[in-house]
Specification:
There is one protein chain. Strands 2-1-3-4-11-10-9 form a seven-stranded mixed beta sheet, with helices on both faces. The protein has a two-stranded antiparallel sheet with strand order 5-8. The mean pLDDT is 94. The protein contains five helices and eleven strands. The protein has 195 residues and is an alpha/beta fold. Helices cover 29% and strands 28% of the residues.
Length: 195
């Protein structure tokens, strides 16, 4: 199977670290700033940053409809930190969940914690929380993969993976590997349906 083609939204936030991690796992990567940048992608990462700025940038670039179309066509989406908020039901509506902004405090309350994530092995993930959101509400189809202090901080529904932390800021690439496994599965299903 050819390499996965994964884009990273490059409007604002730490997109370079995501690109580097995905390339290290063997993906073909692309910065996404305009609708044409989504053409031919298997998946898209929406990184952390400032959710209002990212949302305004998506609208200004005319990306909201094309991102939804990518998702509806079977492309996968991975939202991290602010990206989780952008994916929620109050924004792009890609996942049946509502994220609460700055739920663990502002910048000065940033912290790291060990979080057990289903689907990536027994070893806990060292998660970096920076002005992190948390899942305030989720629908029946949303799978909780990991929690912190009783709140879901990693969730999945269909082809959408979202987490409240910054998996790109450590050497641990297992969240990105999980996303790539989801993307491989989704691409295989699309190819079989088209055959």
């Amino acid at each position: 199977m050819p390499s996965l083609r994964i884009g990273v939204l490059a409007i604002q936030g730490g997109f370079e670290a995501h690109l580097a991690m995905l390339r290290g796992l063997g993906a073909e990567t692309r910065e996404v700033r305009a609708p044409e940048d989504l053409v031919g992608l298997d998946g898209l990462v929406i990184p952390g940053g400032e959710s209002t700025t990212i949302s305004k940038g998506i609208e200004a670039a005319g990306l909201a409809g094309p991102i939804r179309a990518l998702h509806e066509a079977g492309g996968t989406v991975f939202g991290t930190c602010a990206g989780m908020i952008v994916c929620d039901d109050a924004h792009l509506g890609l996942i049946d969940a509502t994220a609460e902004r700055n739920a663990f405090g502002r910048q000065l309350q940033s912290f790291e914690a060990d979080v057990h994530i289903e689907g990536i092995g027994e070893e806990p993930l060292r998660a970096v929380f920076i002005r992190a959101p948390r899942v305030a509400r989720s629908g029946p189809g949303v799978e909780e993969l990991g929690s912190y202090e009783g709140y879901p901080v990693a969730i999945r529904e269909g082809g959408v993976l979202a987490c409240a932390f910054h998996p790109e800021l450590t050497e641990d690439s297992r969240m990105h590997a999980l996303f790539m496994a989801m993307t491989t599965s989704s691409r295989r299903e699309r190819e079989e349906a088209e055959a």
